[in-house]
Amino acid sequence: MTDRPVGMLDSGLGGISVLAQALRDLPREDYVYFGDTANIPYGDKDPSEVMRLTRLGVDKLMAHGCKAIVIACNTATSVAAEQLRKELSIPVIGIEPALKPASLLPGEGQILVLATQVTLRLPKFHALMERYGSNAVPVPCSGLMECVESGQLEGERVDALLRSYLAPYLDKPIKAVVLGCTHYPFLRKAIAALLPPGTPLVDGNAGTVRQLGRRLAEEALLAPPEHTGGKVTFLTSSRDPATLRHMQCMLETAMAML
Ligand code: DGL
Known about the structure:
Elements: E1 6-10, H1 16-25, E2 31-35, H2 47-63, E3 68-71, H3 74-87, E4 92-93, H4 99-103, E5 110-115, H5 117-121, H6 123-132, E6 136-140, H7 144-149, H8 156-166, E7 174-179, H9 188-193, E8 201-203, H10 205-218, E9 232-236, H11 242-257
Helix pairs in contact: 1-10, 1-11, 2-3
């Protein structure tokens, strides 16, 4: 069981930013990554549909014998993590907007939480806001994930969208920006360019991988020391043969950004 892979899933390419972090921090593990590219975006869909699609993704990962599941998608985590933890006998790790670490940073000003409509609308996020969000503002960012999916990590379209979302907040001090969708770390450079220099951009990837490591250790599922690890298998719902190559390229991009 310990030498089985960890399964990860996202609506598309975003979770590859979490996969890169996992390869760096838990290099002895192997990974199977499923991107539900045929069904993007999750963030504008009805939660019942996100639940259905997430289950289908999890089934694919289970068929590959995964020993744990990482829902590398804030949207799918908000909708499905609690329920899947009840149903599955293996660890299920989710990701949430990193509002807690952002709130603990020094400095004054607003915390902008960039995420999908669904993530920001569901009770899981409201609970997070109640605990850590006294100076946080939710900023739904429809359309941004599509830029990442189409390989546009900077340029006019990305800038125009980002400007439209961030402009209302730029005349007040900003303490931090939370990247509450796993696609957004790919847009770090474009986002930083619109903010005062040095504004922290906080994502939940490292915390999620730490939690994966903790859960694997608790369940005695960590890969053994003699296991080489680092093997990645990509799966996609897309019928376009170029998608698997694109996933590999995005992994290289994500590794270079760490
Ligand atoms: N990457 C996903 C997230 O973390 C969602 C993007 C989408 O499908 O809308 O929320």
